[in-house]
Description:
- By secondary structure, the chain is an alpha+beta fold.
- The protein has a single domain, classed as Translation Initiation Factor IF3 (2-Layer Sandwich).
- It contains two helices and four strands.
- The protein has helices at 16-26, 43-53, and strands at 5-9, 33-38, 57-64, 67-73.
- Strands 1-2-4-3 form a four-stranded mixed sheet, covered by helices on one side.
- It is globular, with a radius of gyration of 11 Å.
- 21% of the residues are buried.
Amino acid sequence: MEAVKKLDATGLACPMPIVKTKKAMQELNSGDVLEIHATDQGAKSDLTAWAKSGGHELLQDTEEDGVLKFWIKKG
């Protein structure tokens, strides 16, 4: 999946992945995709809920070697 921007939130605990995601999304245009990498297991439910409440679309999420990867399309 092609992302306009990549955010590395690995090693950060809640709520920092959400805080950094929110800031990164402000720099994108509507329709752009942000790729986020996080290691906090709570990020999965947090980012899913945040994307939905913010009018964004969670396109895909995967886990690879303990790293959660998310692709969120800006609404």
